[in-house]
Amino acid sequence: TKAIKKIRKLTSLPIAVYAQGNGIPEDNLGWKFFRKDKGAQYTKYAQQWIANGAQIIGGCCGTTPEYIYSISKILNQ
Question: Measured between alpha carbons, how far apart are the two ends of the chain, in Å?
């Protein structure tokens, strides 16, 4: 999340973000893994990424189509 703000100040090019799906990001320590997460935390952080300037949101290991669908619902509100 912090990196997106820094990158946005340096470029007007599109910013893409994707992370592991089984956890939540922790700005100082990296990604913390929580197997119970069903995408709710990922979607919450995706909203922050978008608010900070990310235009492309994806997912890596641990994410499912359900994660991307949940993010797309936010974008279509």
Answer: 22
Concatenating the DSSP letter of every residue in the chain gives: -HHHHHHHHH--S--EE---SSEEEETTTEEEE-TT--SHHHHHHHHHHHHTT--EE---TT--HHHHHHHHHHHT-
For β-strands 30-33 and 23-26, DSSP reports them as antiparallel
**pTM for this predicted structure:** 0.73
User: Tokens in use for 9?
Assistant: 């100040």
Residues 46-59: pLDDT tens digits? 899 999 999 998 88
